[in-house]
Amino acid sequence: MKERDLFGGRTTAIMALAGSAIGLGNIWRFPYLVGQNGGAVFILLYIIFSLLLSLPIFLAESAIGRNGGVNCRSAIAAWVPGRAGRWLGMLSIITPLWIVSYYSVVGGWSLEYLIQSCKLQFTQSSPELMSGQFEALLSQTYKPILCHIVFLMATVVIVAFGVKSGIEKFSKYSIPVLFILIVVIAIYAVTLPGAGEGVSYLVKPDFSKVTPHTFIDALGQSFYSLSLGMGIVITYSSYINKSENLMVTSLGTSISDLLFAYLAGFAIMPAVFAAGIEPSSGPGLIFDTLPYIFSQMGLHMPVFSAIAAILFFLTVFIAALTSSISLIEVGVAYLTEEKGMKRGWACVLLFACCGVFGALCSLSFGPLAGMQLFGMNLFELADTIASNGLLVIGGLISVIIAGWVIPRKVLFKELTNAGAKRINIKFFPIVAVLIRYVAPIGILVLLITSVI
Ligand code: PFF
């Protein structure tokens, strides 16, 4: 077998994993969930769940991946004998490909909004009109598909360059750029007149806002944001050198992801409050509320508002791209290693399949809007199946394998570098309990509530 590429070192491994974690989940999903769940209290729960539940699952997947040193399907099948193992492994290949198909449709919207901000096209005088402009884009046939295809093409081109020259190189430059961009936008947002209320919304928890929903949303978001349960962490960790400390790479990724989400909150919420808009406006927050805010700022400060809009949608675009790369890589690793395909051809094949499925999802806001199941169009259905079902099942498979199937000594070897890392040895018993008992219970709760 051809020798596999590995990430160059600890920092680049963290950057690649953080690239996968930091995505639309942080900039699009997190702020609107914060808005719908009462602000700082949601963030507090999100941080607790991330460190207590999602981080151990991340460690479990990382250990499975590095121990296997192969693509995700084989890494899972190595521990679960027979047909079941092959099917479970296959599920972890299908899930990210399923997701990237519609994820790149949203990536395409961010590209279109980036172009619109460069052309200073955010000029509507109310959030409703701005929302109309967004819906008008979605209901078109060709433009959203074209944007989706361009976005997907950019993704596969980077992946085609390989683990070192494509994924690692791109993450190495894009992650620092993303942090710089989001800090600049956040500084701008908090200095807007009237932004103070938005800032206190993000830092002062109001415990009266807590409902059972707040817990479920916070748990689900921590899971989604770390890209768990879909083969990504297993695949990327198989590219981590045996001498690296997995507790450090995992913690580094988790902290980068949390920090970025919080900064995204500061980039968005103060502007929302400054414009006197309800923070709970939901999923349309970044595609209709924010452009409206940019258009309003444009009345007084046209240059600043244009720059803010461009920087913001550039951030969304790059963040979505680093995540979609990781989603595609899971399938590419499988096709090259198991089916003997050349990387370039594997990319072409996945581009074609995800391109077609994504185009159908895109059309479900326009000509195919009438095709509904359970009151959802194809896009919404695809997202619901993935977020509430496939991801959670994938996560459950990982923790069951890591906590109950893999011998404890293998887990110990991976998470302590065969006993060489003293501090890891101290933490190992806690991590093992979290992986074996706490994480499966948390995932089951999430699964049952999503089904209900
Ligand atoms: N973690 C990335 C994000 O938050 O956008 C990637 C991702 C996770 C995409 C889960 C899709 C998904 F369902």
- CA radius of gyration is 21 Å
First and last CA, distance: 46 Å
Ligand inventory: 4-fluoro-L-phenylalanine
Anisotropy-based shape: globular
Q: Which residues form runs of ≥5 with pLDDT under 50? A: none
Number of helices: 18
Q: On the 0-100 scale, what is the average pLDDT?
A: 92
The H-and-E topology, N to C, reads as HHHHHHHHHHHHHHHHHH
Helical amount among residues, as a percent range? over 70%
What attributes characterize this protein structure?
18 helices; 78% helix; globular; binds 4-fluoro-L-phenylalanine
Question: What does this entry look like structurally?
Answer:
The protein is an all-alpha fold and 452 residues long. 78% of the residues lie in helices and 0% in strands. The protein is built from 18 helices and no strands. α8 (163-190) runs antiparallel to α14 (302-338). It is globular. The N and C termini lie far apart (46 Å). The model has no long low-confidence stretch (mean pLDDT 92). Bound molecules: 4-fluoro-L-phenylalanine. 4-fluoro-L-phenylalanine binds at residues 21, 23-26, 99, 103, 224-225, 227, 323, 386-387, 391.
Summarize the structure.
This protein is mainly α and 452 residues long. 78% of the residues lie in helices and 0% in strands. The protein starts with 9 loop residues before the first helix and ends with a helix.
